[in-house]
Amino acid sequence: MPRNTIEISETIEHLTILNENDELDASLEPDIAADELRRLYRCMLLARRFDERLLDLQRQGRIGTFPPIQGQEAAHLGAVAPLRPSDWMVPSFREMAAELWRGRSLENIIIANNGFEQAGAMHADSRNLPMAVPVASQIPHAVGLAWAAKYRQTDDVVMTFFGDGATSEGDFHEGLNFAAVFQVPVIFVCQNNHWAISVPLKRQTRSGTLVQKAVAYGMPGIQVDGNDLLAVYVAAREAIARARAGDGPTLIECVTYRVMMHTTADDPKRYRTDEEVQQWRRRDPLPRFERYLIGKGVLTPDVIGSLKAEIAQEIQVAVARAEEQMPVLRAQSLSVFDHLYADLPPYLKAQKQMLAEELSLSDEESANG
Amino acid sequence: MPRNTIEISETIEHLTILNENDELDASLEPDIAADELRRLYRCMLLARRFDERLLDLQRQGRIGTFPPIQGQEAAHLGAVAPLRPSDWMVPSFREMAAELWRGRSLENIIIANNGFEQAGAMHADSRNLPMAVPVASQIPHAVGLAWAAKYRQTDDVVMTFFGDGATSEGDFHEGLNFAAVFQVPVIFVCQNNHWAISVPLKRQTRSGTLVQKAVAYGMPGIQVDGNDLLAVYVAAREAIARARAGDGPTLIECVTYRVMMHTTADDPKRYRTDEEVQQWRRRDPLPRFERYLIGKGVLTPDVIGSLKAEIAQEIQVAVARAEEQMPVLRAQSLSVFDHLYADLPPYLKAQKQMLAEELSLSDEESANG
Amino acid sequence: MAKMTMVQAINMALRQEMEKDDRVIVMGEDVGLDGGVFRVTEGLIEQFGEQRVLDTPLAESAIAGMAVGMAAYGLRPVCEIQFSGFAYHSFHQLESHAARFRRRSQGRFQMSLVLRAPYGGGVRALEHHSESREAYWAHTPGLKMVIPSGPRNARALLVAAIRDPDPVIFYESKALYRAFREEVPEEEEVLPIGRPRIVRAGDDITLIAYGAMLRPTLEAAEELQKRDGLGAEVIDLLTISPLDDTLLTESVRKTGRAVVIHEASRSFGPGAEIVARLVESAFYYLEAPIERVTGYDLIIPLFSQEQNYIPSVRRIVRAARKTVNA
Amino acid sequence: MAKMTMVQAINMALRQEMEKDDRVIVMGEDVGLDGGVFRVTEGLIEQFGEQRVLDTPLAESAIAGMAVGMAAYGLRPVCEIQFSGFAYHSFHQLESHAARFRRRSQGRFQMSLVLRAPYGGGVRALEHHSESREAYWAHTPGLKMVIPSGPRNARALLVAAIRDPDPVIFYESKALYRAFREEVPEEEEVLPIGRPRIVRAGDDITLIAYGAMLRPTLEAAEELQKRDGLGAEVIDLLTISPLDDTLLTESVRKTGRAVVIHEASRSFGPGAEIVARLVESAFYYLEAPIERVTGYDLIIPLFSQEQNYIPSVRRIVRAARKTVNA
Ligand SMILES: Cc1ncc(C[n+]2csc(CCOP(=O)(O)OP(=O)(O)O)c2C)c(N)n1
Ligand SMILES: Cc1ncc(C[n+]2csc(CCOP(=O)(O)OP(=O)(O)O)c2C)c(N)n1
Ligand SMILES: [Mg+2]
Ligand SMILES: [Mg+2]
Fold first, then answer.
1. For residue A285, what are the domain limits?
2. Is residue D58 within 6 Å of ligand 1 at its C-beta?
3. Distance CA C192, CA C244 (A)
4. What single-letter DSSP state applies at residue B24?
5. Within chain C, which residues score under 70 in pLDDT?
6. Is D74 inside a domain boundary?
7. What CATH number does the domain containing C257 carry?
8. Residue C189 domain flag
9. Are residue A300 and residue A355 in the same domain, yes or no?
10. Nearest ligand to the C-alpha of residue B135?
11. What does R_g of chain C's alpha carbons equal in angstroms?
12. Could you give the CA distance from residue C26 to residue C40 in angstroms, rounded to a whole number?
């Protein structure tokens, strides 16, 4: 009857496999086929180069504001790589590498970043949800999809992404609680990049780690070095297997860093030091993974060279194609009335007509004026 | 570098002092003055009898729907007793015993339960917030008050109450997180009465205890036998001292039980067994505390007898007074326009005029018709 | 045909749709064993099991958010929010996602979901249990806002809402839940969403109401007939949004006079839009200002005073007379 | 007097009120070191410290809810919600508490709090960053809804909002943040909440606008003068709710014609209430239907098409002509 410490029964772990000094814990090294490793490396490189290119385009006024992902590629790709195509991905807004892996095209990203509704179009069987801008709001969607996948007796799972800042929102809490209560097959991947715009992790929450928040939901949690693709991969693979087996959700915290600005509208010099950024640049996941693959003989400098050329070309073609399409899309002014509802109610038909007249009158006026 | 278990550094404890078999852990017994013990007992008894009387009144149609508190008196009173009058109390809707302790009158409760706006009136220096109906929504208010109390460099603390169901709401999560980040003097008292209307605790959350949710916020937590007034008291006193000293918030889980219906509109037979209820009735906090006090020589059967008579009288007077006042209050129809804003904007003046005319026309019509 | 209360009629709609379509899932707080705090979902868990009737934890944002995910999968969740006064917790999920997923995905994901919630006063309830804030949802493009006025149309509209490919907020007047019974056919009956209905014909004045306000409006119409010899045309909106004003316009072009009645507070309420539409479509036919009989611009008072807040037959009659004598 | 952008003018209002009154606390996401994503709170943390300028965790419900508690204590929190499209997370705190605490406590607790949020389109932003949903708050009794139209009145209205004993939702057009500069006096200037203002006199037609729509409306008025010889009276609402229609009524009784302009979507939008009020107060003076020039009943399109959605000078001019030629 005296004062007792309550035992926490949830498993909360940390995992690193290939650390920033290139030390590998071989006992934990996952057995990934060489081909798959090369695909992962290629996608990582593509995401990095494309991110850089997007920044150029933004600075040239050729796309709108966007959130760079640099430094988080391993935490994206390690997580989605063990998914099947029939599994679902529910992104936040900073998972470009994961989206590329799951089939999104470079053109589409460029067009979307120019404010085109039409870029939302996707295959009728796409299992990727569109980006969710309101922080954490996508988390309950993942739970609903997972519930449905279980209800339909499939063994598909759902993976959702969100940031460290997102863990403060009510939707994070409610979503994880629902997932645990209903024991649905969902994997919660927190991209702890240490910053939510200007708010550092330690002002976001007082908890020692983000992963320990799993304790609140009676859910297992694993924290991984998010710049170690192998660790992310292993943690995700385990969580996916658990979900697929019907054993419920997992919280994965990927410890990584946002080396760039929050979005291109942000100036991080206002709130953080360059030293901090430099420290994290040294833990860059891309060269770390590259050295590992070279060491393993999966890649050679030659192969890397030709990959780079290939990727440069791919990006150039995508930009050109996107810029070709946009004037066409821009001319589809009446398309804003599409897809609000399945059918256009009478007063919206009238409003569409108003806009059509407006546009033709404007055309006339400019023709006359 | 291998897989590590992450150490949880928060203290999460359980405390029982006087258990359901009347066993006392004397080493933990708080040193409460005899007078205070008697006041506590009296308030507990008053709350019990008044709760029963409210149920009669409701069944007779003399008050509206209300939420009985029976069985939770120890968890209310043990928590508020160590507060100072200058500390703040932020209730939910099922803390009648705590409200009585903090000075709310029986009449006021009866009038409020008859849907009178005017019952909201309170002393200009009252440090009790009014009841909050939307579950968990009061939690951030407590954080704001506590922030203000700290900002003003007082050593006042804030105590807020909520149920087990409330822990599922986003406001619980956001509120506790803010409190921990800002290290404000607030005590979160969860009344875990095992039910949220028809939803049992194990369908509310999968976490083994509610108190372990404190881990998510880097906050200490303590679970107590909520039917053991002494344990609640000690846990609250510690948490209050910690808050007052500037050491931040605490989560207290009082394990108790809602032996009655959720509200008088509810029929618990639909969703739970009588055995479960009977089991908990045996752990009734009132006789347990009574036996303790008798054993301690603080109370005698005689004193109890006269207390009972006194209380019966007090309740009778309160009911009579409340019922006298209500016709007067009911006649103040135009008072609904008071206190929406500090000043009545022009169109609301016009609407008040409309209502006044409406009422005088109705009076005429009934006089004529 | 059985005589049913609105609670029973809605229950029948849920049951029959669940029988016909295994995509239909009922979810919310206390909707399972308890059958909902108003007993609207009574018996469903017994018939369909826990897989089709979900007692959720207490979190309205997650209820709506999870439903968004289920709808994205292709299911047809029907959520119950225990009182419409707690639907605000779901606001961002509805505004930011339910209303937008179809457009955001250019048609890939449809949000066939229903959010049912009891609304309105008149049942001696606690604070937050009596509001009429349908205008919030009506002003949100991408949502549909439906309010039935009796057992039979409640059933037929709910069937339509469940089958609708777009998200529907479905407000149920708790004052009507057990107020009266109507014949409700066992066989399927569907009322189209987006179409008001003339429930009483008349040539002298148009009275526009919905939900719990329909009955006092009909009473007022009878009184106007009896005492003033005025033929009032009464229109039941049924759908607040998307608002189709065709019928309203026709009627007001005929009568030249209109009164709009709602329980919701006045300013920026649903009545304002109806007035604005009629000004746009029937201005030259109007013989008097359109009157609004509404709740005052207050939070609805606690129950000791709510009867003065909710439009009464008397207030409707007076407003109609004012319009006619203008 | 210095020429200032609206960002600078709002910043000055905050700074001066914080200097005068230590109850004023600024809080929100990124309002501290970062100075707010639009730099509205720039320099405040340097001047007033972390005790007066709170960088909060990322949770809008708690921002509003904590502010309710601070206001109950007697402080005057000024919250920034990063974009009005994320204010829905705070909906229940504002509707259920900020709007009600004074009444619930019969005057014991006042809610002197301000919730600032950038609203509206025109800055090539992401989804959820361009909405104009002020009607939600305007339809909520107990709240006040204010929208300035330029640097000088933004400053003077924000001072009034901060000192107001009741909760004020303060929407700032981000399109106006840096669009132009105005002379803003260093000394105190306060504009009363609840009072529209005539910004251009005229006898032929009344144009009613607010926020970012004021400038195109004024341009339209000039064009109507130049091309059509029409004198348009332009009224800047400034306060959406509580809406005082006295000035509107007077103007429309004089001109007999009105156009209401807003960026918000049309149906159940702010314009509907203005039309309804004018029908109630100036019906017999109206010579033509009141026109509404508004956003369409769509979610505001992403930026490649938003210019067609937002009312343009051309659309306003055409509507005015339609009214005059009616
Ligand atoms: C509900 C909501 N509030 C505020 C914002 C503005 N905002 C966009 S991203 C962001 C920070 C997110 O931080 P985090 O979750 O850590 O993700 P990261 O940006 O680091 O990837 C904020 C405040 C938003 N999009 N949604
Ligand atoms: C936000 C919100 N949702 C739903 C309700 C309806 N409701 C009132 S009390 C209650 C259950 C509360 O359970 P708990 O938090 O355990 O408190 P208890 O009633 O057991 O004291 C519910 C669902 C409400 N008042 N507020
Ligand atoms: Mg982050
Ligand atoms: Mg409970």
1. 13-331
2. yes
3. 12
4. B
5. none
6. yes
7. 3.40.50.920
8. no
9. no
10. 2
11. 19
12. 11
Nearest to residue C63, comparing CAs of C16, C102, C26? C26
**pLDDT tens digits, residue range A249-278?**
999 999 999 999 999 999 999 999 999 999
Amino acid, single-letter form, for residue C71:
A
A273 — contact with chain B (CB < 8 Å)?
no
Strands (E) across D69-204 are located at 76-80, 114-119, 144-146, 168-173, 182-184, 197-200
CATH number for position B118: 3.40.50.970
- Rounded to a whole number of angstroms, the distance between the first and last alpha carbons of chain B is 90
A251 touches A214 (CB < 8 A):
yes
List chain B residues with CB under 8 Å of D65: 137, 139-141, 143-144, 171, 174-175
Burial (0-12, 13-18, 19+ Cβ within 10 Å), C91? buried
* Residue A330: count of CB within 10 angstroms of its CB: 14
- Non-local (6+) Cβ contacts of D35 within 8 A are A270, D41, D42, D43, D44, D45
CA atoms within 13 A on the CB side of C193: 29
Find out whether D77 and D64 touch, Cβ atoms under 8 Å: no
Nearest by CB to A199, from D30, D124, D267: name it: D30
pLDDT of residue D177 exceeding 90: yes
Strand duo D76-80 + C144-146: pairing: unpaired
Say if residue C164 is in the same domain as residue C25.
yes
The reply to whether residue C304 touches residue B65, judged by beta carbons under 8 angstroms, is no
In a domain? residue C191 = no
Residues C261 and C228 in one domain: yes
Q: Which residue's alpha carbon is at the smallest distance from atom 13 of ligand 1?
A: A196
ipTM: 0.98
Q: Which of B169, B326, B328 to probe the C interface (max C CBs under 10 A)?
A: B169
From the CB of residue A25, how many other CB atoms can be counted at a distance below 10 Å?
A: 16
> Closest partner residue to D106 among B90, B120, B348, by Cβ?
B120
The answer to whether the CB of C273 falls within 8 A of the CB of D278 is: no
The CATH number given to whatever domain includes residue D43 is 3.40.50.970
Q: Chain C partners of A166 at a C-beta cutoff of 8 Å?
A: none
* Cβ-based neighbour number of residue A105 at 10 Å: 14
What pLDDT shows up at residue D321? 98
Instruction: Burial-class residue D100 by CB neighbours within 10 Å (0-12, 13-18, 19+).
Output: buried
Same domain, A269 and A343: no
The label of the residue with tokens 């200002």 reads: C289
Q: What is the mean pLDDT of residues D259-267?
A: 98
Bond from prior residue into C242 cis (ω within 30 degrees of 0): yes
Among candidate residues C81, D61, D132, the one with its CA nearest the CA of residue A135: D61
List, for residues C208-267, the tens digit of each pLDDT value: 999 999 999 999 999 999 999 999 999 999 999 999 999 999 999 999 999 999 999 999
In a domain, B4, yes or no: no
The pTM assigned to this predicted structure is 0.98
pLDDT in tens, B220-260: 999 999 999 999 999 999 999 999 999 999 999 999 999 99
> Which residue minimizes the CA distance to atom 6 of ligand 1?
D82
Instruction: Provide the residue range defining the domain that includes D312.
Output: 197-324
Query: For D211, which DSSP code?
Result: G
Regarding whether D312 and D242 lie in a shared domain, the answer is yes
pLDDT exceeding 70 applies to what percent of chain A?
Answer: 99
Assess whether A119 and A141 both reside in one domain: yes
Last residue of a domain, which of C145, C163, C184? C184
SS3 at position C285: helix
The answer to whether position A57 is within a domain reads yes
Tokens of C84: 């419409």
8 Å CB contact of A270 and D29: no
Chain D contact for C290, CB < 8 A?
yes
Residue A344 has pLDDT above 60, yes or no: yes
Tokens 């939070």 identify what position?
C299
- Rounded Cα distance, D164 and D71, in Å: 12
Q: Using CB atoms, which residue from B6, B205, B213 is nearest to A209?
A: B6
Active site residue A123: no
